Protein backbone atom coordinates (compact mmCIF):
# COMPACT_ATOMS: atom_id res chain seq x y z
CA UNK A 1 0.00 0.00 0.00
CA UNK A 2 1.05 3.60 -0.64
CA UNK A 3 1.07 4.31 3.06
CA UNK A 4 3.93 1.88 3.55
CA UNK A 5 6.23 3.53 1.04
CA UNK A 6 8.62 6.41 1.63
CA UNK A 7 7.99 8.05 -1.70
CA UNK A 8 10.19 11.01 -0.94
CA UNK A 9 13.36 8.92 -0.67
CA UNK A 10 12.35 6.56 -3.46
CA UNK A 11 11.91 9.53 -5.79
CA UNK A 12 15.21 11.02 -4.74
CA UNK A 13 13.95 14.14 -3.00
CA UNK A 14 16.98 14.41 -0.75
CA UNK A 15 19.27 14.36 -3.75
CA UNK A 16 17.41 17.11 -5.60
CA UNK A 17 17.40 19.83 -2.94
CA UNK A 18 20.04 21.87 -4.78
CA UNK A 19 18.02 21.82 -8.01
CA UNK A 20 14.91 22.69 -6.04
CA UNK A 21 16.51 25.69 -4.37
CA UNK A 22 18.08 27.11 -7.52
CA UNK A 23 14.92 26.73 -9.57
CA UNK A 24 12.60 28.27 -6.99
CA UNK A 25 14.77 31.32 -6.27
CA UNK A 26 12.76 32.96 -9.03
CA UNK A 27 9.89 34.85 -7.36
CA UNK A 28 8.40 36.12 -10.60
CA UNK A 29 5.14 35.15 -12.31
CA UNK A 30 6.71 31.94 -13.60
CA UNK A 31 7.27 30.56 -10.12
CA UNK A 32 3.98 28.63 -10.16
CA UNK A 33 5.02 26.81 -13.31
CA UNK A 34 8.46 26.21 -11.80
CA UNK A 35 6.83 24.62 -8.75
CA UNK A 36 4.74 22.32 -10.91
CA UNK A 37 7.81 21.30 -12.87
CA UNK A 38 9.76 20.56 -9.70
CA UNK A 39 6.88 18.56 -8.26
CA UNK A 40 6.78 16.52 -11.45
CA UNK A 41 10.55 15.95 -11.47
CA UNK A 42 10.87 15.18 -7.77
CA UNK A 43 7.59 13.51 -6.83
CA UNK A 44 6.71 12.12 -10.24
CA UNK A 45 3.39 12.40 -12.09
CA UNK A 46 0.29 13.00 -10.03
CA UNK A 47 -1.66 10.23 -11.72
CA UNK A 48 -0.43 6.65 -11.88
CA UNK A 49 -0.06 5.10 -15.31
CA UNK A 50 -1.90 2.06 -13.91
CA UNK A 51 -4.90 4.12 -12.82
CA UNK A 52 -7.49 2.97 -15.38
CA UNK A 53 -6.91 -0.83 -15.42
CA UNK A 54 -6.33 -1.04 -11.68
CA UNK A 55 -9.38 1.10 -10.89
CA UNK A 56 -11.62 -1.13 -13.01
CA UNK A 57 -10.21 -4.19 -11.26
CA UNK A 58 -10.73 -2.56 -7.87
CA UNK A 59 -14.33 -1.70 -8.79
CA UNK A 60 -15.12 -5.34 -9.53
CA UNK A 61 -13.41 -6.46 -6.32
CA UNK A 62 -15.25 -3.76 -4.36
CA UNK A 63 -18.71 -4.79 -5.58
CA UNK A 64 -18.06 -8.49 -5.03
CA UNK A 65 -16.36 -8.05 -1.67
CA UNK A 66 -18.83 -5.60 -0.15
CA UNK A 67 -21.84 -7.65 -1.28
CA UNK A 68 -20.35 -10.93 -0.05
CA UNK A 69 -19.23 -9.61 3.32
CA UNK A 70 -22.49 -7.74 3.94
CA UNK A 71 -24.42 -10.92 3.18
CA UNK A 72 -22.19 -12.81 5.59
CA UNK A 73 -22.70 -10.32 8.42
CA UNK A 74 -26.46 -10.09 7.79
CA UNK A 75 -26.95 -13.85 7.72
CA UNK A 76 -25.04 -14.40 10.97
CA UNK A 77 -26.73 -11.48 12.74
CA UNK A 78 -30.22 -12.35 11.52
CA UNK A 79 -30.32 -16.09 12.29
CA UNK A 80 -29.82 -17.23 15.87
CA UNK A 81 -28.73 -20.72 14.79
CA UNK A 82 -25.96 -19.21 12.66
CA UNK A 83 -24.28 -17.61 15.68
CA UNK A 84 -21.89 -20.47 16.28
CA UNK A 85 -18.24 -20.13 17.35
CA UNK A 86 -17.03 -20.77 13.81
CA UNK A 87 -19.40 -18.22 12.33
CA UNK A 88 -18.44 -15.61 14.91
CA UNK A 89 -14.87 -15.80 13.59
CA UNK A 90 -16.24 -15.45 10.07
CA UNK A 91 -18.25 -12.42 11.19
CA UNK A 92 -15.11 -10.80 12.60
CA UNK A 93 -13.22 -11.59 9.41
CA UNK A 94 -16.03 -10.08 7.32
CA UNK A 95 -15.95 -6.88 9.41
CA UNK A 96 -12.20 -6.61 8.84
CA UNK A 97 -12.67 -7.08 5.09
CA UNK A 98 -15.49 -4.52 4.97
CA UNK A 99 -13.34 -1.92 6.72
CA UNK A 100 -10.52 -2.25 4.22
CA UNK A 101 -12.91 -2.28 1.25
CA UNK A 102 -15.10 0.64 2.36
CA UNK A 103 -12.38 2.92 3.75
CA UNK A 104 -9.05 1.67 2.42
CA UNK A 105 -9.87 1.07 -1.24
CA UNK A 106 -11.34 4.56 -1.93
CA UNK A 107 -8.20 6.15 -0.47
CA UNK A 108 -6.04 3.84 -2.57
CA UNK A 109 -7.92 4.74 -5.76
CA UNK A 110 -7.66 8.45 -4.93
CA UNK A 111 -3.91 8.11 -4.42
CA UNK A 112 -3.57 6.56 -7.86
CA UNK A 113 -5.67 9.31 -9.41
CA UNK A 114 -3.88 12.13 -7.54
CA UNK A 115 -0.77 11.10 -5.69
CA UNK A 116 -0.33 14.56 -4.21
CA UNK A 117 -1.36 16.70 -2.44
CA UNK A 118 -2.85 14.43 0.23
CA UNK A 119 -6.27 15.96 1.01
CA UNK A 120 -7.00 14.65 4.52
CA UNK A 121 -4.20 16.28 6.49
CA UNK A 122 -2.19 14.85 9.38
CA UNK A 123 -5.18 13.17 11.02
CA UNK A 124 -6.24 11.56 7.76
CA UNK A 125 -2.73 10.22 7.23
CA UNK A 126 -2.67 8.65 10.69
CA UNK A 127 -6.14 7.18 10.14
CA UNK A 128 -5.14 5.71 6.78
CA UNK A 129 -1.98 4.10 8.14
CA UNK A 130 -3.65 2.88 11.31
CA UNK A 131 -6.61 1.42 9.40
CA UNK A 132 -4.48 -0.59 6.98
CA UNK A 133 -2.19 -1.90 9.68
CA UNK A 134 -5.06 -2.88 11.98
CA UNK A 135 -7.13 -4.74 9.38
CA UNK A 136 -4.03 -6.51 8.05
CA UNK A 137 -3.19 -7.87 11.47
CA UNK A 138 -6.82 -8.61 12.37
CA UNK A 139 -7.40 -10.58 9.15
CA UNK A 140 -4.36 -12.78 9.68
CA UNK A 141 -5.14 -13.37 13.36
CA UNK A 142 -8.79 -14.13 12.61
CA UNK A 143 -7.81 -16.75 10.02
CA UNK A 144 -5.30 -18.25 12.44
CA UNK A 145 -7.85 -18.38 15.27
CA UNK A 146 -10.36 -19.98 12.92
CA UNK A 147 -7.78 -22.60 11.91
CA UNK A 148 -7.08 -23.45 15.56
CA UNK A 149 -10.81 -23.77 16.15
CA UNK A 150 -11.16 -26.14 13.20
CA UNK A 151 -8.19 -28.17 14.44
CA UNK A 152 -9.83 -28.66 17.83
CA UNK A 153 -13.17 -29.52 16.23
CA UNK A 154 -11.73 -32.23 13.99
CA UNK A 155 -8.76 -33.66 15.89
CA UNK A 156 -9.90 -33.14 19.50
CA UNK A 157 -13.70 -33.19 19.27
CA UNK A 158 -14.13 -34.14 22.94
CA UNK A 159 -12.78 -30.72 23.92
CA UNK A 160 -15.27 -28.80 21.82
CA UNK A 161 -17.87 -28.74 24.57
CA UNK A 162 -15.53 -26.78 26.82
CA UNK A 163 -13.42 -24.80 24.35
CA UNK A 164 -15.67 -24.11 21.37
CA UNK A 165 -18.33 -21.90 22.91
CA UNK A 166 -19.64 -18.53 21.81
CA UNK A 167 -18.29 -16.93 24.98
CA UNK A 168 -14.81 -18.27 24.30
CA UNK A 169 -14.99 -17.20 20.65
CA UNK A 170 -15.99 -13.65 21.64
CA UNK A 171 -13.05 -13.45 24.03
CA UNK A 172 -10.63 -14.62 21.35
CA UNK A 173 -12.05 -12.17 18.80
CA UNK A 174 -11.80 -9.30 21.29
CA UNK A 175 -8.18 -10.26 21.96
CA UNK A 176 -7.49 -10.40 18.22
CA UNK A 177 -8.74 -6.85 17.67
CA UNK A 178 -7.03 -5.44 20.77
CA UNK A 179 -3.70 -6.98 19.72
CA UNK A 180 -4.18 -5.68 16.17
CA UNK A 181 -4.91 -2.15 17.38
CA UNK A 182 -1.86 -2.13 19.64
CA UNK A 183 0.48 -3.57 17.01
CA UNK A 184 -0.70 -0.98 14.47
CA UNK A 185 0.59 1.90 16.59
CA UNK A 186 4.36 1.61 15.83
CA UNK A 187 4.08 1.92 12.05
CA UNK A 188 1.40 4.61 12.35
CA UNK A 189 3.66 6.72 14.54
CA UNK A 190 6.37 6.67 11.86
CA UNK A 191 4.17 8.36 9.25
CA UNK A 192 2.90 11.86 8.68
CA UNK A 193 2.55 14.59 6.08
CA UNK A 194 5.72 15.34 4.09
CA UNK A 195 6.21 18.72 2.40
CA UNK A 196 8.76 20.22 0.06
CA UNK A 197 9.99 23.69 1.05
CA UNK A 198 10.94 26.85 -0.81
CA UNK A 199 14.38 28.41 -0.24
CA UNK A 200 12.75 30.87 2.18
CA UNK A 201 11.57 27.93 4.34
CA UNK A 202 8.00 28.28 3.10
CA UNK A 203 6.40 24.91 2.55
CA UNK A 204 4.72 23.99 -0.72
CA UNK A 205 1.14 22.88 0.12
CA UNK A 206 0.80 21.16 -3.27
CA UNK A 207 3.56 18.71 -2.29
CA UNK A 208 1.76 17.26 0.75
CA UNK A 209 2.13 13.47 0.87
CA UNK A 210 1.25 10.88 3.50
CA UNK A 211 4.67 9.33 3.85
CA UNK A 212 7.39 8.07 6.17
CA UNK A 213 8.88 10.80 8.38
CA UNK A 214 11.00 8.87 10.87
CA UNK A 215 14.40 7.25 10.14
CA UNK A 216 14.21 4.49 7.56
CA UNK A 217 16.00 1.92 9.72
CA UNK A 218 13.20 2.09 12.31
CA UNK A 219 10.58 1.53 9.62
CA UNK A 220 12.56 -1.38 8.15
CA UNK A 221 12.81 -3.01 11.56
CA UNK A 222 9.07 -2.65 12.17
CA UNK A 223 8.25 -4.10 8.75
CA UNK A 224 10.55 -7.09 9.19
CA UNK A 225 9.23 -7.91 12.66
CA UNK A 226 5.56 -7.60 11.69
CA UNK A 227 6.11 -9.68 8.55
CA UNK A 228 7.57 -12.51 10.61
CA UNK A 229 4.91 -12.41 13.32
CA UNK A 230 1.93 -11.65 11.10
CA UNK A 231 2.70 -13.73 8.03
CA UNK A 232 5.44 -16.35 8.29
CA UNK A 233 4.54 -17.63 11.75
CA UNK A 234 0.75 -17.67 11.15
CA UNK A 235 1.28 -19.27 7.75
CA UNK A 236 3.41 -21.99 9.32
CA UNK A 237 0.87 -22.60 12.08
CA UNK A 238 -2.04 -22.77 9.62
CA UNK A 239 -0.18 -25.14 7.31
CA UNK A 240 0.78 -27.49 10.15
CA UNK A 241 -2.74 -27.50 11.60
CA UNK A 242 -4.36 -28.25 8.26
CA UNK A 243 -1.79 -30.95 7.57
CA UNK A 244 -2.71 -32.63 10.85
CA UNK A 245 -6.41 -32.25 10.06
CA UNK A 246 -5.88 -33.81 6.65
CA UNK A 247 -3.97 -36.77 8.11
CA UNK A 248 -6.66 -37.27 10.72
CA UNK A 249 -9.42 -37.30 8.11
CA UNK A 250 -7.44 -39.71 5.93
CA UNK A 251 -7.12 -42.13 8.83
CA UNK A 252 -10.87 -42.03 9.28
CA UNK A 253 -11.29 -42.64 5.56
CA UNK A 254 -9.22 -45.83 5.79
CA UNK A 255 -11.21 -47.14 8.75
CA UNK A 256 -13.26 -50.04 7.32
CA UNK A 257 -16.99 -49.62 7.76
CA UNK A 258 -17.30 -53.39 7.98
CA UNK A 259 -15.46 -53.37 11.32
CA UNK A 260 -18.31 -51.54 12.97
CA UNK A 261 -19.83 -54.90 13.76
CA UNK A 262 -23.24 -56.46 13.58
CA UNK A 263 -24.59 -54.25 16.37
CA UNK A 264 -24.28 -51.24 14.08
CA UNK A 265 -27.30 -50.87 11.82
CA UNK A 266 -26.97 -50.51 8.07
CA UNK A 267 -28.45 -47.02 8.32
CA UNK A 268 -25.85 -45.95 10.86
CA UNK A 269 -23.03 -47.47 8.80
CA UNK A 270 -24.21 -45.65 5.71
CA UNK A 271 -24.41 -42.35 7.58
CA UNK A 272 -20.88 -42.79 8.84
CA UNK A 273 -19.76 -43.63 5.31
CA UNK A 274 -21.36 -40.44 3.99
CA UNK A 275 -19.76 -38.45 6.79
CA UNK A 276 -16.37 -39.87 5.84
CA UNK A 277 -16.88 -38.80 2.24
CA UNK A 278 -17.88 -35.34 3.36
CA UNK A 279 -14.70 -35.01 5.37
CA UNK A 280 -12.61 -35.94 2.36
CA UNK A 281 -14.17 -32.98 0.58
CA UNK A 282 -13.33 -30.79 3.57
CA UNK A 283 -9.68 -31.87 3.31
CA UNK A 284 -9.55 -30.56 -0.24
CA UNK A 285 -11.17 -27.31 0.85
CA UNK A 286 -8.59 -26.87 3.61
CA UNK A 287 -5.84 -27.11 1.01
CA UNK A 288 -7.56 -24.38 -1.00
CA UNK A 289 -7.76 -22.21 2.11
CA UNK A 290 -4.01 -22.42 2.72
CA UNK A 291 -3.07 -21.85 -0.92
CA UNK A 292 -5.37 -18.83 -1.36
CA UNK A 293 -4.18 -17.30 1.89
CA UNK A 294 -0.55 -17.66 0.85
CA UNK A 295 -1.12 -16.37 -2.69
CA UNK A 296 -3.10 -13.30 -1.65
CA UNK A 297 -0.75 -12.17 1.07
CA UNK A 298 2.63 -13.12 -0.42
CA UNK A 299 2.81 -10.15 -2.87
CA UNK A 300 1.85 -7.73 -0.10
CA UNK A 301 4.68 -8.84 2.17
CA UNK A 302 7.07 -9.12 -0.78
CA UNK A 303 6.32 -5.48 -1.53
CA UNK A 304 7.13 -4.46 2.03
CA UNK A 305 10.27 -6.57 2.27
CA UNK A 306 11.61 -5.23 -1.03
CA UNK A 307 11.30 -1.72 0.28
CA UNK A 308 12.83 -2.78 3.58
CA UNK A 309 15.94 -4.52 2.24
CA UNK A 310 16.84 -2.60 -0.93
CA UNK A 311 19.09 0.35 -0.13
CA UNK A 312 20.41 1.30 -3.58
CA UNK A 313 17.63 1.87 -6.11
CA UNK A 314 18.24 1.63 -9.84
CA UNK A 315 15.79 2.38 -12.64
CA UNK A 316 15.22 -1.34 -13.18
CA UNK A 317 14.58 -1.95 -9.48
CA UNK A 318 12.23 1.00 -9.39
CA UNK A 319 10.25 -0.36 -12.35
CA UNK A 320 10.07 -3.86 -10.86
CA UNK A 321 8.97 -2.41 -7.55
CA UNK A 322 6.14 -0.46 -9.21
CA UNK A 323 4.76 -3.63 -10.78
CA UNK A 324 5.10 -5.58 -7.53
CA UNK A 325 3.36 -2.75 -5.71
CA UNK A 326 0.39 -2.77 -8.10
CA UNK A 327 0.09 -6.57 -8.01
CA UNK A 328 0.31 -6.62 -4.22
CA UNK A 329 -2.52 -4.08 -4.01
CA UNK A 330 -4.79 -6.13 -6.27
CA UNK A 331 -4.18 -9.35 -4.35
CA UNK A 332 -4.48 -7.52 -1.04
CA UNK A 333 -8.02 -6.38 -1.84
CA UNK A 334 -8.81 -9.65 -3.57
CA UNK A 335 -8.22 -11.45 -0.28
CA UNK A 336 -10.92 -9.27 1.29
CA UNK A 337 -13.36 -10.15 -1.49
CA UNK A 338 -12.63 -13.85 -1.83
CA UNK A 339 -12.99 -14.67 1.87
CA UNK A 340 -16.81 -14.89 1.76
CA UNK A 341 -16.53 -17.27 -1.17
CA UNK A 342 -13.98 -19.56 0.47
CA UNK A 343 -15.15 -19.55 4.06
CA UNK A 344 -18.87 -19.02 3.64
CA UNK A 345 -20.24 -20.08 0.26
CA UNK A 346 -18.66 -23.52 0.58
CA UNK A 347 -20.93 -24.09 3.57
CA UNK A 348 -24.33 -25.52 2.66
CA UNK A 349 -26.04 -23.74 5.51
CA UNK A 350 -24.62 -20.39 4.44
CA UNK A 351 -25.78 -21.03 0.89
CA UNK A 352 -29.29 -21.68 2.13
CA UNK A 353 -29.34 -18.53 4.23
CA UNK A 354 -27.90 -16.47 1.37
CA UNK A 355 -30.63 -17.70 -0.94
CA UNK A 356 -33.33 -17.01 1.63
CA UNK A 357 -32.01 -13.49 2.17
CA UNK A 358 -31.79 -12.67 -1.53
CA UNK A 359 -35.07 -14.32 -2.50
CA UNK A 360 -37.00 -12.73 0.37
CA UNK A 361 -36.92 -9.44 -1.51
CA UNK A 362 -38.26 -11.03 -4.67
CA UNK A 363 -41.46 -12.57 -3.34
CA UNK A 364 -42.47 -15.81 -1.74
CA UNK A 365 -39.77 -18.38 -1.09
CA UNK A 366 -42.17 -21.30 -1.31
CA UNK A 367 -41.44 -22.04 -4.94
CA UNK A 368 -37.74 -21.69 -4.23
CA UNK A 369 -37.86 -24.22 -1.41
CA UNK A 370 -39.62 -26.70 -3.70
CA UNK A 371 -37.13 -26.28 -6.52
CA UNK A 372 -34.98 -29.29 -7.52
CA UNK A 373 -31.76 -27.45 -6.68
CA UNK A 374 -32.93 -26.55 -3.19
CA UNK A 375 -34.27 -30.05 -2.55
CA UNK A 376 -30.94 -31.48 -3.65
CA UNK A 377 -29.13 -29.31 -1.11
CA UNK A 378 -31.45 -30.43 1.68
CA UNK A 379 -30.93 -34.07 0.79
CA UNK A 380 -27.17 -33.68 0.64
CA UNK A 381 -27.09 -32.19 4.14
CA UNK A 382 -29.58 -34.51 5.82
CA UNK A 383 -26.72 -36.31 7.54
CA UNK A 384 -25.75 -33.28 9.59
CA UNK A 385 -29.26 -32.14 10.38
CA UNK A 386 -30.84 -35.48 11.29
CA UNK A 387 -28.17 -37.58 13.00
CA UNK A 388 -29.51 -38.19 16.54
CA UNK A 389 -27.40 -36.74 19.31
CA UNK A 390 -27.61 -39.83 21.49
CA UNK A 391 -27.38 -42.44 18.79
CA UNK A 392 -26.30 -45.87 20.04
CA UNK A 393 -22.95 -46.77 18.51
CA UNK A 394 -20.69 -49.77 19.29
CA UNK A 395 -18.00 -49.12 21.88
CA UNK A 396 -15.22 -50.05 19.49
CA UNK A 397 -16.21 -47.31 17.03
CA UNK A 398 -13.55 -44.63 16.93
CA UNK A 399 -14.24 -41.92 19.58
CA UNK A 400 -13.58 -39.15 17.07
CA UNK A 401 -16.39 -40.41 14.83
CA UNK A 402 -18.83 -40.63 17.72
CA UNK A 403 -17.99 -37.11 18.82
CA UNK A 404 -18.36 -35.68 15.34
CA UNK A 405 -21.75 -37.28 14.77
CA UNK A 406 -23.20 -35.77 17.92
CA UNK A 407 -21.23 -32.52 18.05
CA UNK A 408 -22.13 -31.27 14.60
CA UNK A 409 -25.83 -31.68 15.31
CA UNK A 410 -25.64 -30.21 18.78
CA UNK A 411 -23.44 -27.20 18.05
CA UNK A 412 -24.81 -26.68 14.55
CA UNK A 413 -21.47 -25.50 13.25
CA UNK A 414 -20.06 -26.22 9.83
CA UNK A 415 -16.53 -26.71 8.60
CA UNK A 416 -15.34 -23.32 7.47
UniProtKB/TrEMBL annotation:
Keywords: Cell membrane, Disulfide bond, G-protein coupled receptor, Glycoprotein, Membrane, Receptor, Transducer, Transmembrane, Transmembrane helix. PROSITE patterns: G_PROTEIN_RECEP_F1_1, G_PROTEIN_RECEP_F1_2. It holds the Pfam family 7tm_1. Coiled coil: none annotated. The keyword Aminoacyl-tRNA synthetase does not apply. Belongs to the G-protein coupled receptor 1 family. This is Neuromedin U receptor 3. It comes from Lepisosteus oculatus.
Amino acid sequence: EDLFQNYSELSGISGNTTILNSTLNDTGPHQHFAIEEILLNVLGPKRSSFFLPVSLTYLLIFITGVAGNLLTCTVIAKHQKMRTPTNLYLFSLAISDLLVLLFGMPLEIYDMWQNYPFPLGEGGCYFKTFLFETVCFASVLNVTALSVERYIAVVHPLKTKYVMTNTHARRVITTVWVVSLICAIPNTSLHGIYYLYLPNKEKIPESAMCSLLKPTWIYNLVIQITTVFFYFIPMTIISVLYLIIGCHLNREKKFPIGKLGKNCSTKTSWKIHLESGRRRQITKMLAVVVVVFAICWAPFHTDRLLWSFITQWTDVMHTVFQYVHVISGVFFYLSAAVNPIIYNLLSTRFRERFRELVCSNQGSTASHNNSPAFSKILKSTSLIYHVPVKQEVPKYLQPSMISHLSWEHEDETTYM
